[in-house]
Amino acid sequence: MTRKRWCILSASLLAFSLASIVALVVIVDPFEIYHRAAFYNPPYESETQMYCGAGVAKSYTYDSIIIGSSMTENCTPSVYDAALGGRFVKLSMNAGLSLDHAKMMEIAFRTHDVKRVVYGLDFFSFSYYYNNQKAVTPDYLYDANLLNDVQYWFNQSVLFSAIPKALSRIGTPDEDMSRDQMYAWQPPDMPGEASLRAQVDLSSPMPEQADIARGTELALLSYEHNLLPFITAHRDTTFTVFFPPYSLLYWADQAVQGNLDTLIAQRNLLAEALLEEPNVELYDFQAFFDWTENYDLYYDLMHYIACVNDAIADAMDGSLCRVTDMTQIERSNQALLERVAALFAP
Asked: How far apart are CA 83 and CA 103, in angstroms?
């Protein structure tokens, strides 16, 4: 064989091998970047939300989205369909910051006509500088540039982990079941009130609280950069924003850490800003003590069980805990602070 023929053959084999790899990734498409899963049930996992979320946002059929942290992972989209109308998908990201949620919304608005955004607003998500993220985002999956998808096609984790996992779940995919079950978790055993109380030191008087200036500055910057632009750019979209119902013991724990005044200030700042926008509906479940003092509903100080997520949809349907002016927030703040103070030893 001549050197020229050998070079041509080698180049041809290389090109064929590369093309085969690309074809495998595109056909299986374990993160559904190009199309919905056709012959397997997608393995949605919290560890790969940054990847799976991009595919769900691009490839699912929907007109409404649920955005938020792990507080929204147990939401059942079909329940929200029935309560609020439309067809929902979850674009949750556990421990996500405001920029993580903004990136998910950007894909959704770019690829779909989004009529409603249900946004679980966690203060910790707004307590970092606005351009911080939970982790480095695979932007090559988030943008519309096909050329940089080479990082997806020849990704070692995709080839040797994601694709084999997908192929191990061969079957007829059910989109409705997938969107309801993705990321959902339910602990087998609940810790109970005594265990939750043991996590918070209530044996001493409530300590002095930290200065609120830095916390409110960061919250405002996050809001102005990562949420407000979507609200103003999409006036025909309803943004149903809710403050999640953390347990009352969570607020007591924040008081122990000196953060209670900062959280109250963030509530005030964000509520006031949101109430100014005509296409925003605001719900505050943080002083809904039927939930927040029922510790049987909580897996830890913050996380509530799945039935609460569905109850939130029903509450929105009935306008329960809807906020229309700052007087309601001020009354809730007062009730919240009084109940937190009562948990501490005199």
From this structure: 26
End-to-end CA distance of the chain: 92
Structure confidence at residue 12 as a pLDDT band (50, 70, 90): confident
Taking alpha carbons only, the member of 316, 302, 178 closest to residue 241 is 316
The domains of the chain are located at 63-135+175-343
CA–CA gap between residue 73 and residue 54 (Å, rounded): 16
Q: pLDDT tens across 250-280, in order?
A: 999 999 999 999 999 999 999 999 999 999 9
Q: Which residue is listed with tokens 């632009």?
A: 229
One-letter-per-residue 3-state SS of the chain: CCHHHHHHHHHHHHHHHHHHHHHHHHHHCCCCCCCCCCCECCCCCHHHHHHHHHHHHHHCCCCEEEECCHHHCCCCHHHHHHHHCCCEEECCCCCCCHHHHHHHHHHHHHHCCCCEEEEECCHHHHCCCCCCCCCCCCHHHHCCCCHHHHHHHCCHHHHHHHHHHHHCCECCCCHHHHHHHCCCCCCCCCCCHHHHHCCCCCCCCCCCCCCCHHHHHHHHHHHHHHCHHHHHHCCCCEEEEEECCCCHHHHHHHHHCCCHHHHHHHHHHHHHHHHCCCCEEEEECCCCHHHHCCHHHECCCCCECHHHHHHHHHHHHCCCCEECCHHHHHHHHHHHHHHHHHHCCC
Q: Do residues 213 and 91 touch, judged by C-beta distance below 8 A?
A: no
The CATH label, of 3.40.190.10, 3.40.50.1110, 3.40.390.10, 2.30.30.100, for the domain at 63-135+175-343 is: 3.40.50.1110
pTM of structure: 0.94
pLDDT single digits (tens) 226-253: 999 999 999 999 999 999 999 999 999 9
Pairing of strands 116-120, 64-67: parallel
